[in-house]
UniProtKB/TrEMBL annotation:
NCBIfam families: GGDEF. The keyword Nucleotide-binding does not apply. Residues 238-370 form the GGDEF domain. Gene3D superfamilies: 3.30.70.270. This is Diguanylate cyclase (GGDEF) domain-containing protein. Keywords: Membrane, Transmembrane, Transmembrane helix. The chain crosses the membrane at residues 40-61, 73-94, 124-141, 147-166, 173-193.
Length: 373
């Protein structure tokens, strides 16, 4: 009995903590970017949205009798919305928080229309399981309150279909109840359980690989990220740029305005570097005022990337903070058995180029190149 009471108390705390947690879109987007998983995620989401689009169309094609106009309109609208949702992930930039929320709303509407477009109500009721896909997306990218709203909408749609099914004498109470349990619980239990698990993973990830002040990777996270980059493309077909940026006059900022202001400047620099590098790159803070950026050279070239970082940093605060930037262009096949040594080489060579820039007076870029032979 005591264990049951303790369990209820812990469950109450967990539910309260879950309900009050912040929207995690930015954190999870950064988590994916640090692991070079943004583009695979976009492809998977586009495929999922596109596959769901086929359901109402196939239903119309397979209909034994000519469906009524209302069913046809609902199916066509659902398909058009599904195609648009799929294209968003393929052709538009990674979404903002607000656009992601709108994606959820439109997805729910499209699935609801697809379910209501089926003359066989049992098929529409079973189709409510597709709400589980959207619920899973919310579990990863958003918070408890949005997930609750989604679940409530799922229940309204399932309840409406159940009422229509019983009213049309298309099933018994027991068959409707079984269909509701099978379809709706998939869309409720799995997303909630997923969000609970993510809460634990987020805490562990933040403690082990993320710099608590700036939200970018720490030294340990950087080592793992560079190892992943080198492992994913052993041939290094496009080349790899690793740069180290050390702030020139940050001590004066701290002395004049205080360390709390300096911390805000560091956090702002990290946030702007994250935006500047984009989804393909890696940003880390490995020292008090030292940042590391790494990116594949598929979309840019080393000097352009370094100058972009230099101007990004100098635009952050007033008075401006300048930086000495050292960048190394790595080419050639990265040794498969020396991933840890390669990581050290990445940062050491970029660090040496950075000190060369600092000896030149700062607020400048120095480049080097290294070819694996």
């Amino acid at each position: 009995m005591i264990r049951f009471g303790v369990g209820l108390a812990q469950l109450g705390w967990a539910l309260s903590h879950w309900w009050n947690r912040q929207d995690q879109f930015d954190w999870f987007g950064s988590y994916l970017a640090d692991r070079q998983l943004v583009e695979p995620t976009r492809v998977l989401l586009a495929i999922s949205a596109g596959t769901v689009t086929l359901v109402p169309v196939v239903t119309l094609i397979d209909a034994t009798t000519r469906p009524e106009t209302g069913y046809v309109v609902a199916a066509v609208v659902a398909s058009i919305l599904g195609i648009a949702l799929s294209m968003m992930w393929l052709f538009l930039p990674w979404p903002s928080v607000s656009r992601s929320r709108w994606w959820v709303v439109v997805s729910d509407v499209a699935i609801a229309l697809g379910c209501l477009a089926q003359e066989e109500r049992i098929g529409g009721l079973n189709g409510c399981a597709l709400f589980g896909l959207v619920g899973g997306y919310i579990a990863f990218f958003h918070g408890a309150r949005m997930l609750t709203a989604h679940i409530a909408f799922t229940l309204v749609v399932a309840g409406t279909l159940s009422g229509l099914m019983l009213g049309d004498d298309q099933g018994t109470v027991s068959s409707v109840a079984i269909a509701v349990i099978q379809a709706v619980l998939v869309g409720i239990a799995i997303p909630i359980a997923t969000q609970f698990m993510l809460e634990v993973l987020a805490s562990d990830a933040a403690a082990s690989e993320v710099d608590t002040l700036t939200g970018v990777l720490n030294r340990r996270g950087l080592e793992r990220a560079l190892e992943r980059i080198s492992t994913m493309d052993r041939q290094n077909s496009h080349g790899l740029a690793v740069l180290v940026a050390d702030l020139d006059n940050f001590k004066e900022i701290n002395d004049q305005y205080g360390h709390r202001y300096g911390d805000r400047v560091l956090a702002e620099i990290a946030a702007r570097l994250r935006v500047a590098v984009g989804a393909s790159g890696v940003v880390a803070r490995i020292g008090g005022d030292e940042f590391v950026v790494a990116d594949s050279l598929r979309w840019t070239e080393p000097t352009r990337l370094a100058n972009h970082v230099l101007h990004t940093i100098s635009a952050v605060s007033d008075p401006p903070v300048t930086a000495s930037v050292g960048v190394v262009h790595f080419s050639g096949r990265i040794p498969g058995r020396q991933s840890v040594m390669s990581t050290v080489l990445f940062t050491d060579l970029a660090d040496a180029a950075m000190y060369e820039a600092k000896r030149s007076g700062g607020n400048t870029v120095r480049t080097r190149s290294h070819h694996y032979s």
